[in-house]
Amino acid sequence: MTLEMKMDEKYEQGREQGLKEGITKGIEQGIEQGIEQGIEQGIEQGIEQGIEQGIEQGIELGIGQGLRVQIQKKLNKGKSISQIADECEESEDTIRKIISEKDID
Fold this sequence. Notes:
Strand content: under 5%
Radius of gyration: 36 Å
Number of strands: 0
């Protein structure tokens, strides 16, 4: 084997090793970047969903609180459950349930 052949063989071995190391490093970096992007997207989606759910729950609570206030005012005026249900466009059972749950007099 001549010196030139040995050099060619060493060159080829070095090239193959360099390719393997480059591919391995590229895969590792790709995985790392993918994980980071996945986490960022997950956090963003979680925040968006949390905000949406919070708004929906706040609206529902606000509507419920408004109905309770209306019921209390109407009771204070001496109105019957039947009248309150009619005016609030709710069933008498719903009005009774709200009164019993929230200690409305």
